[in-house]
Amino acid sequence: MNKKPRSLIRIIIPVVLTLVTIALIVWPMLAGGQYVVLDPKGPIGASQRDLIVISTILCAVIIVPVLILSAVIVWRYRDKPDNKAAYEPNWSHSTKAEAIWWTVPIIIIGLLAIVTVRYTYDLEPSKPLAHEKAPITIQVSSLDWKWLFMYPEQGIATVNTLNIPADRPVKFELTADSPMNSFWIPQLGGQIYTMSGMAMTLYLQADHEGKYWGSGANFTGEHFGEMRFDVNATSDEDFDNWVAEVKQSSQALTTEGYAALAEPGTSNVAYYSAFPEGLFQNIVTKYVIDGNGAHSKHGSSNEASGAIQNSTDKSNQDEDKSAN
Prior knowledge:
Blueprint: H1 3-30, H2 43-76, H3 95-122, E1 136-143, E2 146-151, E3 156-159, E4 161-165, E5 170-176, E6 181-185, E7 189-194, E8 200-204, E9 210-216, E10 228-234, H4 236-249, H5 255-261, E11 270-272, H6 279-284, H7 302-323
Parallel strand pairs: 1-5, 4-10
Antiparallel strand pairs: 1-2, 2-3, 3-11, 5-8, 6-7, 6-9, 9-10
């Protein structure tokens, strides 16, 4: 008597869970929500979106038929008195079936490998973007729990807010004066880790003017959830006007001011009309002792790496003199 209800429950539960999962995925789109990773506003973000979509489709070619066949098999061979499905207890092999479930996955995996390698090469973070305009350089340091953005060409700095010109490549040089974090602007691309003793390079570009969301995407303690910042992509003219306004209406960031800023704690948005020369390189090499920093040989910033190498060479020369 209880066999039928039990079998029905076993069928209903997976169906309900599947429908709920699909609803959770589709509902934000229908309700005006937005998956920012799937709504890119720059060439890097667009390529990353394409890779996600292509990989999902290729995987679905295998996963969807398997899920459908699983449901069909459970239904067809269910325990039922009048079930007319063929009963073959001694069946053990089918050349046709073996060829299908080995050949198709191998082809899919091969295609997925080719696509992934191609996009991985094209999306190399330190690879400059082809564009008629020269890139603007922005130096980024992650602190506990805030972001410091330095504009060496403009001579200004900001905290927890980022302004960039639209339709122009941006060269980010990134490091950390705190535990490792991850720099991420979902609609433009990323993410890339910021680490003490290292200087990483990331090229991004906003194709359109607008405000985008940026965040730290790595757990770094109590207030890591507050490491968010707005990215304002504006016209070249508006960007220049903004720089001029910051220079006129803000105070300079001093060495003492930076030391206070680097202390653990949250911060509001702040603007600085100037910052100490070489501050970014000093942050990169801050934890290097006699050229033996933990990551002293892995920086991608030429200036930072040069400073570290000079320190290492001097240390080696001193050792040679002592030996003689």
